[in-house]
Each structure stands twice: as C-alpha cells, then as structure tokens.
TrEMBL record:
Protein name in UniProt: Uncharacterized protein
Role noted for this protein: Decomposes hydrogen peroxide into water and oxygen; serves to protect cells from the toxic effects of hydrogen peroxide.
InterPro entries: Catalase_sf
Domain of life (superkingdom): Bacteria
Compositional bias (Polar residues): 1-19
Listed GO MF terms: heme binding
Ranges where the record places region Disordered: 1-23
Organism: Pseudoduganella rivuli
C-alpha cells in the first residue's frame, strides 16, 4: 500500500450505514438576517460592515467528509446594484450542527485589512444532536426549526503581520449577528433550491471582501465548473446574479 493510499485510509471517516448517506448532504436552507452591529471600531467598520444595517441572508448547514459546513449568502447593495456576499466556513465533524463554531476556509480582504472570520453559535438551549435513521442530522435540524430559531455571531480577526491559522474564537471580534427565526428548514422546494438554484462560493463577493491566496485563486474555476455542472441537471438558473431569495420565505 502506497503512502498516499495509507494517508487516504487514515483520513476517511468510518461511517456506519445510517450515516453514509449524509457524507455529502445539505441538512437545511434557512432564511435569515445579518445584522451589522452599531459603533464598530473604524478598523472593523469595513466593506459591508461599514455601517449598521440589516441584510437578508440564506444559511445552509451541510456535511462533507471530515467537516461540517456553514455557508451564509448575504444580499447587499454594491455601487447602486444588488450583490451577493458569500461566507463559506467549516467546523469539526461533530454530531451537532447548530452548536458548532465554523471558521472561514481562507483569508479575505476586509476593506483596508486582511481578515479571517468565524461564526459562533449563541443560540439558547442545547443544540440538537443527530437523530436515528439515514437522514438523522436533517431530521434533527427540521425538528429544531419547527419550534425554535438560531443565532450566530459573525466574528472577525484582523491580520497584523504574519500569523498562522487561528482556531480560538476568543481571538475574534463580533461584527454582526445572523438570526434565523423558526421556519420550515427542509422541503421539496428547498431541496430543489439547494441542489439546482443556490450556490455558495467565496468568489461570490463584493470587491472589499475578495478571497486571498494562491489556493483560493486556483479553486475559483472549480467553483464555477461545479455551479455549471449542477445547473445542467436542474431547472435552476446558475448564472450571475444568483437569485438566492427566489423561493417563498416562511410566514
């Protein structure tokens, strides 16, 4: 067995049959709001966070091997037009979704600065854990949002000189809150939107929050190819600008 094969075997999670179907899956697609905080210090009042505001947003919680994912799509004004600003973040492969802390997968421009971001759950009560069955995470997610909402703090850590990857939420400062009310978290309509009509990419962004680094530049074409591939097999419009809020919002 080659070194690469051995490494892949070590990194591949051992999933039981009830978990296997969730190795790659979206578990919920939520209407939410991102509320930019008032009185941010000048260094943090940059880009879409430059002044207090409330923006419509979509939140997707998902799974991939070795990671849980949280993606947030914010609809913002940008030079007289409407733009999408996506934040794509990942967390540890715990059995929970709402109790995780999710970190950005790349540094981004933050106005005049460079930053990393994280989303920290500040919801009250115990985060729901996976239920039994082949779609246990999704079932727990749907059951939770039938009665409860969720809230996250979006936090920023500005880079000052060279530093490594920061995984301590205490090193980050809150700039906004993401709030989702109780609502249907999954349905046939939402499944269709998640599969064919809504994409999340760090490169769907305003100029002030572009991703940084050679890896992210290399992945840019990959995000676009993925969107085109998915769009070819569904009725969704994968062309810019993405109509992320096209499906009905919950009452």
């Amino acid at each position: 067995m080659s070194d690469i094969t051995q490494l892949n075997a070590q990194l591949t999670p051992q999933l039981n049959p009830s978990e296997a179907s969730e190795e790659f899956a979206s578990h919920g697609l939520l209407h939410a709001e991102m509320r930019v905080l008032d009185s941010l210090p000048r260094a943090l009042a940059q880009g879409i966070f430059s002044q207090p505001a409330t923006f419509p947003a979509l939140v997707r919680l998902s799974s991939a091997p070795l990671v849980r994912g949280m993606a947030v799509k914010v609809t913002v004004p940008d030079g007289g037009r409407t733009a999408q600003q996506d934040f794509v973040m990942g967390g540890a492969p715990d059995r929970r979704l709402l109790g995780e802390t999710y970190f950005s997968q790349a540094r981004i421009h933050y106005g005049d600065h460079v930053a990393q971001l994280c989303a920290v759950s500040v919801s009250r009560g115990q985060a729901p854990r996976r239920k039994e069955g082949p779609q246990g995470l999704r079932d727990a997610f749907v059951e939770h949002f039938a009665r409860h909402g969720a809230e996250w703090e979006l936090r920023v850590c500005l880079e000052e000189g060279a530093f490594g990857w920061l995984e301590d939420p205490g090193s980050y400062v809150t700039v906004a809150r993401i709030v989702a009310r109780p609502q249907p978290a999954w349905s046939t309509t939402l499944a269709r939107a998640a599969a064919h009509a809504v994409t999340f990419s760090p490169w769907q962004c305003v100029e002030g929050h572009r991703p940084m680094g050679t890896i992210m530049r290399a992945l840019r074409d990959g995000y676009g190819a993925s969107a085109r591939f998915r769009g070819a097999f569904g009725a969704g419009n994968m062309a810019e600008p993405y109509n992320a809020l096209a499906y009905p919002a919950p009452n």
